[in-house]
Automatic annotation (TrEMBL):
Signal peptide (UniProt feature, chain positions): none
Annotated segments matching region Disordered: 31-62
Localization, UniProt: Secreted, Extracellular space, Extracellular matrix
GO molecular function terms attached to this record: cytokine activity; frizzled binding
Role this protein plays: Ligand for members of the frizzled family of seven transmembrane receptors.
Keywords: Developmental protein, Disulfide bond, Extracellular matrix, Lipoprotein, Secreted, Wnt signaling pathway
GO biological process: canonical Wnt signaling pathway; cell fate commitment; cell morphogenesis; developmental growth involved in morphogenesis; muscle organ development; neuron differentiation
Transmembrane segments: none
Pfam families: wnt
Protein family according to the UniProt entry: Belongs to the Wnt family.
Matching InterPro entries: Wnt, Wnt_C
Gene Ontology CC terms, in alphabetical order: extracellular space
Protein name (Swiss-Prot/TrEMBL): Protein Wnt
């Protein structure tokens, strides 16, 4: 008698991160179109659930049914915001609204802005001046600090 044991294993964390980053960089803006036909009969929503939850249920864009072509699962479909772009596929990342800008102050959204913050002139990261100052330019300031060190000299040995 032979026994076969299978272990489910995730790919390396770096591979998952790289793939998500690629999808994030290629994400496309979409808008919701109600042109799909809503399912009748067994509704996705129970009668006591608010109607606004319909968009929250959309965790997949569409599903394929055998021999019947593409059916839209939740009664709506996602169309590209720019009509010249192709529609998103089931593996694509999409977004409905662009992220708010972090450069300018927006108290309504709790964004402090970046004006007046200190940046690192030599950094290419998020603390770097090119990114943090949002193309507005920046002033460099060089400060020389002179401090007393309160050092004392102790003779250590005899010659």
């Amino acid at each position: 008698c032979t026994v076969k044991t299978c272990w489910m294993r995730l790919p390396p964390f770096r591979a998952i991160g790289d793939r998500l980053k690629d999808r994030f960089d290629g994400a496309s803006r979409v808008m919701v179109s109600n042109s799909g036909s809503a399912r009748k009969g067994n509704s996705v929503r129970s009668s006591n659930r608010p109607k606004k939850d319909k968009a929250a249920l959309a965790n997949s864009i569409h599903t394929k049914r055998e021999g019947r072509g593409r059916k839209y699962k939740y009664g709506f479909q996602l169309k590209p915001y720019n009509p010249e772009h192709k529609p998103p596929g089931p593996e694509d990342l999409v977004y409905l609204e662009p992220s708010p800008g972090f450069c300018e102050k927006n108290p309504k959204l709790g964004i402090q802005g970046t004006h007046g913050r200190q940046c690192n002139d030599t950094s290419m990261g998020v603390d770097g001046c090119d990114l943090m100052c949002c193309g507005r330019g920046y002033r460099t300031q060089e400060i020389a600090i002179v401090e007393r060190c309160n050092c004392t000299f102790h003779w250590c040995c005899e010659v």
